[in-house]
Amino acid sequence: MNRTVRRGLVVLGLPFVVTQLNAQESQTLTVAAAASLTETYRDLGKVLEQRHPGLKLQFNFAGSQQLATQLEQGAPADVFASADQRWMDYAREKGLVEGESSLFARNRLVVIVPHANPARIERLEDLARRGTKVVMAAKAVPAGKYSRQILANLARAPGFPANYDRRVLANLVSQEETVKNVVAKVQLGEADAGLVYRSDVTPPVLRQVRVFDIPEQFNVIANYPVAVLKSARNATAARQFIDFLLSDDGQQLLRRHGLMTAPAASVSQP
Q1: Which residues on adjacent β-strands are paired with residue 210?
Q2: How far is CA 49 from CA 56, 107, 168, 242, in A?
Q3: How far apart are CA 135 and CA 45, in angstroms?
Q4: Are 26 and 211 in contact (CB under 8 A)?
């Protein structure tokens, strides 16, 4: 279904959904979402609650791998939003996903250091310096997978040592289960540097850290798919949630939070 048709469904569906919700008791839509979507989805939830009286958004934010496991074990949710396709595919293989999953956003990674920068990191090459305390997400976490891909890419970049990735990984002092934990470690000065999503560097975070961009040709694009779950108790609102994500208003909201918009009609077939 193309974006034009999706937008039409959102507009045409509003009177029906609002009437349905007003005619019943307040309904809750439960969304299991990657931790890197925390601020974005909280704002999005406020918008949808204002547009649809009687609808209450409830979020479960965690690492995508944690959410997939929770859903497999029976955790209630209507929508699953992952920070990579791997864990969406896992959920599909376990029979948890209803219909199609849609790519709704993309992201890039950056390196952050404490604002005081006690390790005196001035360039990406400094992450490989012996004694530098680096923190990253664990391998199973999408941000951890992307971070390791970036280090391998930089090991082939001009001016970087061929063993750059191994040297940086040797400096790891912590591997976190969510990218938000990586941000917190750097903010608290428990690490000299960390790899996080661009969208994680919110205005409050930016007051406490410095940011080093990763050259585009060596960076990795994180793809975010979303899907309705077979266990959804509120499938109508779940589909409307996804329609809003893919609408112009939803995409503008994502951009305001530092995410990249999704290509039109980016859908993964079941």
Answers
A1: 113
A2: 6, 26, 44, 14
A3: 31
A4: no
- Token pair, residue 163, equals 């063993």
Structure tokens at 57: 């958004």
Token couple for 8: 């039409």
Q: What is the DSSP letter of 261?
A: E
The residue segments making up the domain with residue 240 are 3-106+223-268
Which of 190, 172, 166, 179 minimizes the C-alpha distance to 137?
Answer: 179
**23-69 tens-digit pLDDT:** 445 689 999 999 999 999 999 999 999 988 899 999 999 999 999 99
Element at 50 (helix H, strand E): helix 38-51
- With pLDDT > 70 as the criterion, what percentage of the chain qualifies? 88
The CA-atom distances, in angstroms, between 267 and each of 2, 60, 104, 117, 263 are 10, 24, 9, 42, 10
Which residues partner with 113 through β-bridges?
A: 210
For the stretch 215-265, pLDDT in tens is 999 999 999 999 999 999 999 999 999 999 999 999 999 999 999 998 863
Q: Which of 218, 235, 253 is the last residue of a domain?
A: 218
CA pair distance 85, 161, nearest whole angstrom:
31
Q: What is the pLDDT of residue 264?
A: 62
Please tell me whether residues 81 and 7 are part of one structural domain.
Answer: yes
